[in-house]
Design brief:
Layout: H1 3-8, E1 11-12, E2 15-19, H2 33-51, E3 59-64, H3 70-83, E4 87-93, H4 96-101, E5 112-116, E6 125-132, E7 135-136, H5 139-150, E8 163-164, H6 167-183, E9 197-200, H7 208-214, H8 243-256, E10 260-264, E11 271-275, E12 280-281, H9 283-294, E13 302-305, H10 311-320, E14 324-327, H11 332-344, E15 351-353, E16 359-361, E17 367-368, H12 370-386, E18 403-410, H13 416-433, E19 437-438, E20 446-450, E21 456-460, E22 468-475, H14 480-491
Parallel strand pairs: 3-4, 3-5, 4-8, 9-10, 13-14, 13-15
Antiparallel strand pairs: 1-2, 2-6, 5-6, 6-7, 10-11, 11-12, 15-16, 16-17, 18-22, 19-20, 20-21, 21-22
Length: 505
């Protein structure tokens, strides 16, 4: 593979991701130290042009999560920054949202920042996320920076004089101040006194939240687990969507009789929770909870979600909270950009959030920040306790999902995007011919609604990056998932390059 193709192939939407260390059979290293160096150099040159500054006038920070390849990749990123003449700052162990906030804080005010992370992916993966004061890079901007990297040689220099920045301390202090202000308790410095909160950091970068945030605010954190950074992730995948991870947190909450449990992904841009009774607050329930917290301050506003949310969530948002629900394309940058667009045109939208746990608030720089979601949740919990209420009451009218299924069907041809579009077009035409209800507008894929003898919905879409077609199904009664799956099989007959084997029992 040519250098150009190898570097450009590392783009994953608005991030860079690849295999960074050996150890998994059949997965050779693709994100080498050299490529990390050249890609960072491409970002530096791109940023100088964007900001209209000389490279020597730029201040750029680098941070990382707990991955085992982080140290080597960080050295290469710092070499590229300093070798080109810009000022480099080593933020050490950090979080993705903290790296953005380093551009905002008066104490730092960096021109750009780089977070070395691959979120919840396996231990052998890693990647780079890039920030400007406008937020994370857009996909097209990253493509431009990678093209610059292709034409840039590896940069080498001595980095022994790099400046250190203990960013996580500054970030934690900011979170503490936001919680104190939000609760406005008589116990101003210890507003979480008397509240028992368990944290599961999954051995990622989120362990700081226990000592540097909750501990400073007076919370009881006994039973918190997997706080030590370990890039092998020995206990469970650090992913709030992972069933094992959520069960580990739920067990810790119940065993320790905690009031609340919080779980973060590796780089802390996502969060989910568990309530005192063991109820998991993730996916639709997390969206409902955050919307219920925001609703009093943003009446009749619009909540942006990804496309796979339930009809039950729509009913709760619209009929219980009197908000608008706007389903949009998957991908955290997609929902965030749609939230920005609506606010720019005058339609109030306080929240853009995916079922994955990525949540960005307008009031927080449109930043997908798991720790900030935790801040909002903790403030709500403290206020509820003061009023002798519970967090559970905020979403007590959200109807639980009865049964659901997700199938990921592979497209087995080279021009998979074109083939996927053909499948969607024919699928929709067949559905209409059969008299099924096609939900409009749809910003991603084709969504069908079923009412009557079969009750529920189905969404067929193309994956954002992979040659796959995910199919999400939700049934509202016993056997409805199977009945809807049978309909899907009927509507997908004849597409021989679509692997439908997962639909068969």
């Amino acid at each position: 593979m040519s250098d150009e193709k190898a570097i450009l192939s590392l783009q994953n939407g608005s991030d860079v991701r690849g295999v960074a260390v050996e150890g998994v059979e059949g997965e050779p290293v693709t994100l080498t130290g050299e490529y990390a160096n050249r890609i960072t150099a491409g970002f530096v040159k791109w940023l100088a042009a964007k900001n209209g500054k000389a490279v020597a006038d730029l201040k750029i920070a680098v941070g990382h999560d707990s991955r085992i390849s982080a140290s080597d990749l960080k050295k290469q990123a710092l070499k590229a920054i300093m070798g080109l003449g810009a000022k480099a700052y080593d933020c050490n162990m950090a979080t993705t949202p903290a790296m953005f906030m380093s551009l905002v804080y008066d104490q730092t005010k960096f021109d750009g920042s780089i977070m070395i992370t691959a979120s919840h992916l396996p231990f052998n993966r890693n990647g780079l996320k890039f920030f400007t004061i406008d937020g994370g890079m857009e996909k097209s901007d990253l493509t431009d920076a990678l093209k610059i990297a292709v034409d840039t040689a590896k940069v080498d220099t001595d980095i022994s004089t790099v400046q250190n920045c203990e960013l996580i301390d500054l970030y934690a202090q900011d979170l503490c101040e936001k919680i104190r202000k939000g609760i406005n308790s008589e116990e101003f410095y210890h507003p979480l006194k008397g509240i028992h909160i368990v944290v599961d950091a999954g051995n990622g970068a989120g362990g700081f939240f226990v000592e540097k945030v909750l501990g400073q605010l007076g919370a009881d954190t006994a039973g918190s687990q997997f706080l030590e950074p370990d890039g092998h992730f020995p206990n469970h995948i650090p992913n709030p969507e992972n069933k094992q991870a959520m069960e580990a947190l739920r067990s810790a909450v119940i065993t320790n009789k905690a009031d609340l449990g919080l779980i973060f992904d590796t780089d802390v841009d996502r969060m989910s929770a568990v309530l005192a009774d063991g109820r998991e607050i993730n996916r639709d329930a997390l969206i409902a909870m955050m919307a219920a917290i925001l609703a009093p301050d943003y009446p009749e506003s619009t909540i942006i979600t990804d496309s796979v949310t339930s009809d039950k969530l729509t009913d709760f948002l619209q009929n219980e909270l009197h908000l608008k629900h706007h389903r949009y394309m998957r991908g955290y940058k997609n929902v965030i950009n749609e939230c920005r667009r609506l606010n720019d045109k005058g339609e109030i939208s306080p929240l853009a959030i995916e079922t994955s746990g990525h949540g960005a608030l307008k009031e927080n720089y449109y930043l997908d920040d798991g720790a900030y979601l935790a801040v909002k949740l903790l403030v709500a919990a403290a206020i509820a306790k003061k009023e002798d209420k519970s967090l559970e009451s905020l979403i007590e009218k959200l109807q639980p999902i009865f049964e659901e299924a997700e199938y990921r069907m592979s497209i087995n041809c080279e021009n998979f995007r074109e083939y996927g579009q053909k499948v969607l077009k024919t699928f929709e035409e067949r559905a209409k011919e059969k008299g099924y209800t096609v939900v409009t507008p749809s910003y991603e894929g084709v969504r069908l609604s079923f009412k009557g003898s079969v009750n529920g919905w189905a969404l067929l879409r193309q994956s954002l990056h992979d040659p796959k077609m995910p199919l999400n199904i939700e049934g509202n009664g016993a056997g409805d998932c199977d009945k809807i799956t049978a309909v899907m099989q009927e509507l997908l007959i004849g597409f021989d390059q679509l692997d439908k084997s997962s639909l068969k029992k």
